[in-house]
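User: I'm new to structure prediction. If I give you an amino acid sequence, what do you actually give back? Let's try with this one:
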Amino acid sequence: MNEAKYIWMNGEMKPWAEAQTHVLSHTLHYGNGVIEGTKAYKTAKGYAIFRLNDHTERLLESAKMTLIDIPYTVKELNKAQIELVKANKFEGDNVYIRPFSFLGYGQMGIYHKDAPVETAIASWEWGAYLGEDGLKNGIRLKVASMTRPSNTSSMGKAKATANYLNSQMAKYEAIDCGYDEALLLDDQGYVAEASGACFFMVYKGQLISPPNDNSLESITQKMVIELAEDMGMPVIRRRITREEIYIADEAFLTGTAAEITPIREIDARVIGCGSRGPITEKIQSTYFDVVFGRNSKYEHYLTYIDQN
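Assistant: Good question. You get back a string of structure tokens that encode the predicted 3D arrangement of the chain. For your 308 residues, that looks like this:
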């Protein structure tokens, strides 16, 4: 993992190695914490954080869902992320930002009301989550043997640390079987999401993505839908069966880390031409133009960082 100079923790800039917590921190034992994944890109005007406010708002929404009282406002957390990227003096094209809040040391047992809340933000240079080759030629996807937890059994709308045990097991299974990523179905057998990304497919000219009935409300998914509709390509939101994805003309994943990653194979079935399809490529190139500040129409989604 790439390190950086500083981590923002509880209102202070700390050297990377000194941002620590106690082994009896509540979240380590019981899993209640909330996270975000945000990205800054090196544009012609310097680093710009993509959809900063949306990500910070979602962090606070997740915290409210899971009964974590973060003692900072959206404005304060936005400022902290900007200052952190600036202080770390990055040079690469991509910077990942990880804001998170967790329950610290001072309370044990399931009931967490009196556990102290810790808030931290880390950032580091991080390239393509599923590999540069995956962005160009596509990845191999496996439908996981376990399903995504139902809405009646977990806080699935929260970007909560506990929810990622399910994703972690699915991802491990997929890689152990020789694939790159896992796709999880819901408890009724319909496509939910990948282990850390949303799913899109193209079938007979239609761009289709499942509703967020049983998946995280994705900011990148929302962006892709906006881009596609602005291109005159309506997006259909409906349930997708396992059988349908095997006969898709194209498929791809979206996410802050995954960006726009084509899928070339699912469960040993070749998808379309077996590499990045034309619609996927068009959406992908448009997305990168947006985040790198090359499309003025969507520049309002970028928060530029003054490096002086």
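You can read the tokens as a compact description of the fold. Here is one thing that stands out. The radius of gyration is 19 Å.
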